[in-house]
Amino acid sequence: MLMPPEVRATRLVAALGLALLAAPAAAVESAPVPPAPPAAAPAVPDLLASLPDNDKIDYAFGAFQRGFYLTAFEIAVERAKLGDAKAQSLIGYLYANGLGLPQKPEEAVIWYKLAARDGDPQALVELANLSALGIGAPVDKKQAASYLEEAIGKGVVEANYWLGLLCIDPSSGITDFTRAAALFKAAAAEGNVDAVYALAALNREGQGVPKNDTEAARLMGEAARAGHVAAQVEYAIMMFNGTGVARDQKTAAAWFKLAAGAGNPVAESRLARLYATGEGVPRDLDAARRWHGRAAAAGLADPWLDKLLADEAPKAGDKPPNLPGVDAGN
User: Fold this and answer.
1) CB contact at 8 A, 199 and 184
2) What is the CATH number of domain 233-330?
């Protein structure tokens, strides 16, 4: 779910064990002495001994960022034994993802629990992810929710979004759309674009909040402008149909193009329809076939468009009056 904390780049060099060059020997009057060979790079234990204790975890993250996972592990283990919660979380991440170590999710759970106990609230989000997915332990979405509640209580803002997702998951045992809307709103206020999109969907469907197409369109547009591809597709559909926003087929087509360019199959399919019918864009059957082919290759069928393109020229009444939403199929 999450990457380890970012580190300062200026502390990367020592973690890589770069060789220290010995100074050349001083010249002797009667016969020159060849320079001494370069000193060997310090071993990791020696390197650790030379670092201030409070800096060692930064070196571990520096090694991680450079892909030196075993070095990161060795440095982190020393700190973890002393109760360093960030080091324990890093070890959990390495085990969970099999980076430099055999992938052992059960070990990851142990290290994340230690990290949570010793003061890293971010580890609670990782534990929630593993519990919700059944990785390292049986699936337990109620336990995942408990971890997220604790994380929220400790100031982890992003946990609002993840708990909101559990609250709209029918299999979680804690389904509560009203609570989900409040959680998504809290996460959206902190800049979580996924939460803005989720809140827009709830407003559109009238789940957890009164149905409000205008608010749904406003939020969907906000997420779309922030680069959320699924929101771009939904906003284009709403704009094409005039749902909660002024109908504008040309601008809708532009949003479909943007999302299709990012590889979204639904946007590719809808853009193909527009080219086939000449709505919002000049009619172009070649472009329609091209985008339809991309959507079909991604597994998105469209029998209506198959027939239209096979006929070469659409007949009167062949135009779809509206474009169905993402969740409505084709």
Assistant:
1) yes
2) 1.25.40.10
